[in-house]
Structures are given as structure tokens and as C-alpha cells.
Description:
- This protein has 12 helices and no strands.
- It is mostly helical.
- Helix 4 crosses helix 12 and helix 6 packs antiparallel against helix 8.
- The chain is globular, with a radius of gyration of 18 Å.
- The relative contact order is 0.21.
Amino acid sequence: MPHSAPDPQDQPEGMPSLYLLPLALLPQGWALALLLLSALVLGLPHGAADLLVARRLGWPLGPFVALYLLLAAFPLLLLLALPPLGLLAFLLLALLHWGRVEGKGGLGYLRAGVVLLFPFLFHREAILPFLQAFAGGWALPQEGALVALLFLLAVALWRPAPLGLWLDTLALALVAFLAHPYASLAGYFLLQHSLESLRLVGVRGRDWASIYGATLGALLLALLLYPRFQDPLAAYMGAVFALTLPHALALEAWLGRPLPPWRWLGPGR
């Protein structure tokens, strides 16, 4: 019998952002290592849990995997053909998906935007090697990142949120400002987004075997992309970009979505 999706309101809160502040002490090499480690710990595995979603929803596994790979091919082809446009699409897709998983209405999108856009405002030189490999050196202009953040702030202010969530968002912004962008991205991706996603799916002890089996497939995709990018982080992020679209859609189905677009910014889920 297919499992029912857990009520998001019953899920525990993710790690408070204040606990991520020690990441500001990590030098670049350690920050990069932490981000790459997410390929094995929580990062890719949280997406690999989509196989559990398909099984619990009663979907036939073969057609699900085939459709999953087909959907992953579209962003990957975009990135390979038009790297700057691929980078923009990656940022937008991650923003929409992370903001939805946050479950905090408009404030969730602002939180995702802080992690994704602060590097283009405050750490451009630190991410230049990645941008050279991933997008041919193209970077989101500072003005564009600032306008996007101000828009997300306006969206977050549109509906009230508890003071505690705003304070946690300020702490997250402090982490994103002080820490190397690889460290802040790894901390958020691992300890907030991935953990929350795994909680929403309801992963249990015996589920991890199949999850790590699927993770090996995602790692294989990153390895296949390495000759194209000649950079481990760019190859890894290329695989993450490709898999985020089908992953986001699978999670939407598990949670009983999609909602109409005009309800996306409402409080909670």
C-alpha cells in the first residue's frame, strides 16, 4: 500500500542558522571539500530518495526512471549549449525548489536567495574559478543579484512571518556574508535543505540502502561530465542542476502538489 505524505507541519525544524556560523572559519580548501562531500552525505542522497517516492506512490519504477532521466536531459543540454543561460536557469530552479521545501512562504524564497545570490554580491572573486568552468566565466551582474534580492525581500514582507523566522534568516544572511560561499552553500544544502527534504519524504533506516544505490548513479553522471568541465565542483554542480528538475517535480507529487502559482507564496505549505 502506498504511504501517505507526512504532514509538513509535523516535521521538526531544520538546523538553526546560528549553528552554521562556525562555517565562517573554514578556509577555501576545507569549504570546497565540505561542498564536494555533500555528493556522498545528504546532498545527492536526498535527491536519490525520489526512488522511495515513486515506490510509495505506486508508480512503476521503469517508466519513472526513464521519465526522470528524460527530464534531467533538458537542463543538462541547456547548460552544455548555452552555459550563461544554464547558470541563470540553475539559480532560478534552485531558488524555486529550495524556497518551496523551506515551507515558510515568501520568506523561504528570500532565504534561498540569500544563499544563492550573496556570492555574486560579496564573494565574486571566490567563485570565479567555478564560474570559469561552469559558465565560461559569466557571472550574474551585481545589480541583477541586488534587484533579485530586493524583490524577494518584498515578497517575504508581503505576508507576515514569526519574528523567530526573521531572526533565523538574519543569521543565515550573516553566515552567507562571512563564510566562504562554498561553505555557506554546503551548510545550507546539507543541514537545512537536504535534511528537511529527507524528513518530508520520511526516510527510515532500511531506506538508505536503495538511496545510496541511486546516489551512485548521480555520481556516475558527475564523472561523465568531468571531461567537459575539467573541474570537480563544476561537474558536480552540473549533475545537481540536471537532476534538480525531476527531483523537484517528484517532491511536488509526494506532497500533493502542484498548487496553483498564485498560492506559491502563501504561508506554510
